[in-house]
Amino acid sequence: MSAIWALVVYIAAIIVTNAVLKRNIGESMIAGFVVVSLFAGPDILHVMTGALTEAMQEEVTYAAIAFVVASYLMSRTPILDRLIDIMNSLFGRVRGGPVYTSILGGGAMGAIAHIGAAVTASVGSVTIPWMKRSGVSPAMSATVVAGCAGMGITFPFSGTMFILIGSAGVSQLLEPNEIVLPLLAAGFWCLAYRMFAAWIIVRRHGIQAMDPADVVPTRRSLRTGWTSLLLFVAILVPVLVTVGPMGAGLSAWTGVDVSDAISLIVWIPVLLVTLVLFLGRRHLPRTASGWWTTLGDSAPRIGVIGVTIVGAFAASNVLSELGLPAQLTTLLSALDAPLWLLAIAVGVLVVAVAIPLTGSATMAAIGPVAVTALVGAGVPAPVAAAAVLVFASTEGASPPAAAPIYVASAIAGVDPVRTFKPLLAYFCLPILALGVLMVLGVLPI
Hints:
Layout: H1 2-20, H2 25-37, H3 44-56, H4 59-75, H5 79-91, H6 97-113, H7 116-133, H8 138-146, H9 159-165, H10 168-171, H11 180-204, H12 218-225, H13 233-240, H14 244-254, H15 258-261, H16 264-279, H17 288-321, H18 324-333, H19 339-354, H20 359-376, H21 381-392, H22 403-412, H23 420-440
């Protein structure tokens, strides 16, 4: 059980360092990584070196930093202001319009891209400044966007879904096509709840429609800012060439699965930075010294998020090396409880593991065991698999280690710690409850 104790100590170390000792989250993640590595004993140096090497090679690490750079560069140009003016024209008269737009945008992007960090950055770079300008606090703006990061897991056909249904323990229980409709229904339940949460947020925090005097006429905003809409090309192009008819055609023509060959989380930020440099060229530095100063100003923001994400991935690698998946399998197999209690226990365990791990890593670690435990209690396999994916979708809203929290907070310019409580209250715990209700059949899927 040493790996399970390591997980408990790891989470405690982060909380104590951040909340009690008042250190920033980057330092807290380093402390958590060092503490959890102590459980490796005499192999500590070997384990730490391997974990750090793998963490620094993670695509999400690169992507998060690239999105922060893109966001910072956009803040130095009028691109976002013009894009916000267009959205302002369309939704500014609706009370809480930017909050609802963030939820719907997160759902739409999640259903296509499925990558939490990419969804957070793509949607957040547009809607967070708009929410802030509409009177939403920076912390709540980041909370809303990060709370939608996991929606990609709850819609077919995410990589996390394929990891789960392709695992040895689950592939014998259901055919891949059996999970599509249940997971689609689960995704819409999660989206519906988030819209309800947005309604509560709008009213609890007194968010109003924008002053009519501040709403730019649609014709004028489109005439002056239509080029800002090209930012969405950075999202659409990688998606279109990897999924749907174009992706299938390219795969057939090249003989290579383009969805595997082209990484969305790599190419979306590459194209986004390229477009920002092009669209904002008149407002960005033209000399080497100017660029040196500009990038230097962004260094603190990049440094914190980079250290945080590397620390989170490195710690998850150590936990895997310590045998966390096998020990959790043993723990789940020993459960003998009524269905409602089993569903809560499985859900809490998946959510807890998704705190330091990504959704995909969580499914690889304990997904098959969680599904098997529920099926053994009489839950249909497709329902069990969909519910477990819903549990894992809390990865984006689970403090303190979820990468989307830090992406959204960096865009909003707020201390990530200020999003922890609202994320738990509005997103993490309610999504856990949704998964339990799906297992019990209260929410049909």
